[in-house]
Structure formats: structure tokens, C-alpha cells
Design brief:
- By secondary structure, the protein is mostly helical.
- Helices cover about 50% and strands about 10% of the residues.
- It is built from 7 helices and 4 strands, in the order H-E-H-H-E-H-E-H-H-E-H.
- The chain has helices spanning about 10-20, 30-40, 45-60, 75-85, 100-105, 120-125, 145-159, and strands spanning about 20-25, 65-70, 90-95, 135-140.
- The longest helix is centred in the middle third of the chain and has 17 residues, at about 45-60.
- The radius of gyration is 15 Å and the shape is globular.
- The two termini are about 25 Å apart.
Length: about 160
């Protein structure tokens, strides 16, 4: 989870590969209307996000194997919708400075999410709370170090 440019897809795919799990980029589950709205520079509202988040939660329960899904999940209420589908979901919050996020977003031309929406995402972001299963990871580290930390946290959560 995290704002645009934090590496959700890259890290999610790497964690899934390490765990032998299936990976799904949550962006692929957005209806075209959401993609069009973001591409035009407009942030999504809660009404836009609700069916998308419910579908992400359903994907966890529908999966017959371990599953990693990259998804912004910026607010506690959004994560609650996902957990309605599967209460055992473990969130990995990929966190970084605004400057690093901006730099990464500018380096990915052709993505539907414009850099202009970064500030609205940062304003919307509600960090994981103490009662939510998950960890916060600094994205300034290498992907390999991030994956090592995530896998260790998942193993610790299972014990």
C-alpha cells in the first residue's frame, strides 16, 4: 500500500516471487471510469474507490493460493473494506519522501497517474494504525532489502 510512485507494483511482484505467491496489480481492477478520471488529473473520491476496494478484498478470499495485491489503500476505511473480504490481510506500507516519490513518478512516462495528483494522495494517506496487521517500510532502500524486511515481517506475523 502507499501513494503513487512508492513502488507497490515492483515490490509486490518481488515479494510474491520470493514467497511463491500470485501477484495482482490492483490498478488492473480499476474500472475504466476511474482510470479516465485519474488520467485527466482528477483524484478519485470514496464513491469511486468503494467497488474497486471491495473487488480487491474479494480477490483475496477467491484465491486458492497465497496472493499479493498492490493497492494504494490510503485510508483506514479503505483498508477496512479490503479486510471485509479477508480479515487476515497484512498490509505493507511503502513510505518515502515527497521528493523521492515525485522523482519516481516523473521517471515513468505513460502511466495514467499524473504527478499532479501526488499531493492529494499524500493528503489522503492515513498511516497504518497500531491495531492493523502490517508494517511500514522505507522505500529509499533497495528492492531486495525491502523484500527481505517484508518476508521477515510476514514470517513473524505467522508465528
Amino acid at each position: 500500500m502507499g501513494v503513487a510512485g512508492c513502488g507497490k507494483s515492483t515490490v509486490g511482484a518481488a515479494v510474491a516471487e520470493r514467497l511463491g505467491a500470485e501477484f495482482l496489480d490492483g490498478d488492473s481492477l480499476h474500472p475504466q471510469s476511474n482510470i479516465d478520471k485519474m488520467a485527466s488529473g482528477l483524484p478519485l473520491n470514496d464513491e469511486d474507490r468503494a467497488p474497486w476496494l471491495a473487488e480487491i478484498g474479494r480477490r483475496f478470499t477467491a484465491s486458492n493460493s497465497a496472493l499479493v495485491i498492490a493497492c494504494s489503500a490510503l485510508k483506514r476505511a479503505y483498508r477496512d473494506i479490503i479486510r471485509t473480504g479477508d480479515p487476515s490481510v497484512f498490509f505493507v506500507h511503502l513510505h518515502g519522501s515527497r521528493e523521492l516519490l515525485d522523482e519516481r513518478m516523473k521517471a515513468r512516462p505513460g502511466h495514467f497517474m499524473p504527478v499532479s495528483l501526488l499531493d492529494s494522495q499524500l493528503a489522503t494517506l492515513e498511516p497504518l494504525q497500531a491495531d492493523e496487521a502490517g508494517i511500514v517500510v522505507d522505500i529509499a532502500q533497495s528492492v531486495e532489502k525491502i523484500v527481505d524486511g517484508v518476508v521477515a515481517a510476514l514470517e513473524g506475523a505467522r508465528s
